[in-house]
Structure formats: C-alpha cells, structure tokens
Automatic annotation (TrEMBL):
Family annotation (PANTHER family): ALKYL HYDROPEROXIDE REDUCTASE AHPD, BLR3452 PROTEIN
Gene3D superfamilies reported in the protein's UniProt record: AhpD-like
Lineage: Bacteria, Pseudomonadati, Thermomicrobiota, Thermomicrobia, Thermomicrobiales
Superkingdom field: Bacteria
Molecular function per GO: peroxiredoxin activity
Protein name: Carboxymuconolactone decarboxylase family protein
Listed Pfam families: CMD
InterPro entries for this protein: AhpD-like, AhpD_core, CMD-like
Ranges of residues in domain Carboxymuconolactone decarboxylase-like: 30-105
Amino acid sequence: MGNRLDEFRAYRARMNERISEIGHRDINRFFSLDSAAYRDGALDARTKELLGLVASTVLRCNDCIDYHLDQCVKLGWSDAELYDALNVALVVGGSIVIPHLRHAIETIDLLRAEQSPPASVAESD
C-alpha cells in the first residue's frame, strides 16, 4: 500500500475518468478551462502552478494543495520557494490556514522522499 499521495493520485485519476465518462458538456468544458488556465501564457505554467498552490491554500483545499505541490515539485520549485509562497498564503488567509500549512509541509516532505533514491542494502557473502 502506498502513502496518502499515491492514494490521492489514484483516486483523482479514477474519478476524473469517471466524470469524463458522464459526457456532460459543461462539466467537460470546465475541466478543459481549468487545464488551459495553467498553460503558458503571459505567465509561464511554472508560475501559474505556484499561484494555484497559494490560492488553494487560502481556500483550504487539501486535494488542491496536493495537486499543485505535485506539479510545483515536478516543475522545479525549491523548498525555500514553496515555503515562501505558503507564507504568502498564510498571511492572506490567516490562522485558519495553519492546518492546511501543516498538510502542505507534510506533502512536500512526501514528494521529496519520492525523489530520494532508496538506500541500497549491502549484499553479504
């Protein structure tokens, strides 16, 4: 069994596929609009993901925090940059954001652990 990020990713993929199967035009349009919002434009996709992280933290959506942190780490944001962005979210959102800040820091730790190669076990003769 994987960690909570693995479970989140699997659930998100499964439910997005299920929603797509419904075939509702306006729901599909919204999903398309959401995807398009994070593409390069006047702001690059990398910056937009960081903005998505801040907005998601202020709005207190842990699923969204996990998604945007996953993207931000893939796009090369450093921990120091992520912490700085999360500080902006904390200042804007206030103390009610603190539980979501805890969640975000745990998520960053999980994402960084995925990037670290597992320690190899020395073979004995």
